[in-house]
Structures are given as C-alpha cells and as structure tokens.
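Key result, reporting period 2: structure in, sequence out.
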C-alpha cells in the first residue's frame, strides 16, 4: 500500500509518495493553496490516482512541545480530507523538517529562487520517510527494535 505524505503550509502543500512496500518516500509535487475545500479535493484525487491507502500529515508542533494555531489548521485540514474520503490519517511530528530540507538544498547549492519551489516537497519527503523508518523499526508490541 502506498502512503501519501503532506507538508501543509499556508501557501503551499508539499506532497510525497511512498513506494508500494512502504520503504522509501519520493517527492511528488507542490500544490499551490487555493482554499481548504479545493485543496482537500485535489489531495483526495491524488490519493486515488496513486492508490494511496493512508495519509501522513506533518504536525507543526512548537519546539517546546505545545500546540499552536498551525496544529489546529492542520487537524482541520485532516478532518476535511476524512469527510471527503474514508482514508486513514496519521499526524506526524514535523519539527525541524523544513529547516532540514532547507539545509539539504543549501548544501546542494540550490539557488534561493529554486529552493522556494521545492522546499515543501522535500519537507514532505522527510516527514514521510521518518514515518516509514519508524514503522519499519517497531515490533509487534509497538516497541522500537
């Protein structure tokens, strides 16, 4: 089963997709935000096109572990997705993923202009890949190996 990963921002949504075995994540696209309803419909369409059975959404938890307005907005988006299509939604701590994505792009000498277009997609890849790594490293009792 494929899994879709999302990095939901105010202006853009980075989208990543796992392979069939759920081992690796790759960047799929960046969706320019148009409104919660239109964005959610597009995400569900992408899920169906790619036969994704689950969505992992990055949760922007504050560095001190508290939840702010960003978390509320992301959960509201997740609920909108569920109202349109019965799909499992998993929220995943995304602290520092955008910073990590930016560092990767800077280290790769990607220009500031080009970084803006791909940073959200790379952040979605990092969110999804960390989730995939986690689920492949827990035993049947839910304990890390």
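The corresponding designed sequence is given below.
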């Amino acid at each position: 089963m494929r899994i879709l990963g999302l990095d939901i921002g105010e202006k853009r949504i980075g989208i990543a997709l796992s392979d069939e075995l759920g081992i690796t994540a790759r960047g799929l696209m960046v969706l320019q935000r148009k409104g919660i309803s239109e964005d959610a419909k597009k995400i569900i369409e992408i899920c169906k096109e790619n036969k994704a059975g689950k969505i992992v959404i990055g949760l922007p938890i504050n560095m001190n572990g508290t939840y702010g307005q960003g978390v509320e907005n992301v959960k509201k988006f997740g609920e909108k997705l569920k109202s349109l299509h019965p799909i499992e939604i998993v929220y995943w701590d995304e602290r520092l993923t955008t910073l990590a994505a930016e560092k990767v792009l800077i280290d790769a000498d990607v220009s500031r202009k080009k970084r803006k277009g791909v940073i959200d997609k790379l952040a979605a890849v990092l969110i999804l890949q960390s989730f995939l790594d986690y689920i492949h490293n827990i035993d049947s009792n839910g304990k890390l190996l």
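The chain is about 45% helix and 25% strand. The domain at 2-135 is CATH 3.30.420.140 (Nucleotidyltransferase; domain 5). This case is discussed further under Risks and Mitigation.
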